[in-house]
Amino acid sequence: MRYLKESFIKAKPEVVFGFHELPDAFERLVPPWENVRIIQKAEISKIGSKAILEQTLFGLFRQKWVAEHTVYEPPHLFVDVQVSGPFKVWMHHHRFVEFEGGTFLRDEIEFDPGFSIIGELGAKLLILPKIEKMFAYRHEVTREWCEGQS
User: Fold this and answer.
1) Is the pLDDT of residue 80 over 70?
2) What's the pTM value of the predicted model, to 2 decimals?
3) What's the pLDDT tens digit per position in 94-104?
4) Band of the pLDDT at 128, cuts 50, 70, 90?
5) What span, in angstroms and rounded, lies between the C-alpha atoms of 72 and 68?
6) 64 pairs with which residues across the strands?
7) DSSP for the chain?
């Protein structure tokens, strides 16, 4: 399955990319309603750097999620992939595309929830709405910070 969230931010790609390099960027991007504990932070500038999170899925199950940073091309792209966690596959491309006075922030996610047809149905009903809400929040937080820097 694929998910795409794109927003226009009135700031240069270096500023928008730079926001993601802040030491507390991930904490800023976690919505307040998410029950996430950061065990280890990743440095996006270091290929192979791993983020380790623990979260509660659907209010019931504790799940550890390990994501590894695999691409770092400032100020245009960085990529993280799930090493272990709730999905069979999770690959997240963070793209920053300069355009007429600003930047398109694009989050492109390719994921496979596993569990065949049941997983696909669950993804459409439960996972995609949760991802959409989370990335709407993340893009707004990013926009507010970046446009405040200009």
Assistant:
1) yes
2) 0.90
3) 999 999 999 99
4) confident
5) 11
6) 54
7) -EEEEEEEESS-HHHHHHHHHSTTHHHHHS-TTS-EEEEE---TTSTT-EEEEEEEETTTEEEEEEEEEEEEETTTEEEEEEEESSSSEEEEEEEEEEETTEEEEEEEEEEE-SSHHHHHHHIIIIIHHHHHHHHHHHHHHHHHHHHHH-
Q: How many residues does the chain have?
A: 150
Query: Locate tokens 């991930």: which residue?
Result: 26
Q: Are 12 and 106 in contact (CB under 8 A)?
A: no
The rounded distance, in Å, linking the Cα atoms of 101 and 77 is 19
With b for 16 or more beta-carbon neighbours within 10 A and e for fewer, the 112-135 pattern comes to: ebeeeeebeeebeeebeeebeebb
pLDDT band at residue 120, thresholds of 50, 70 and 90? low
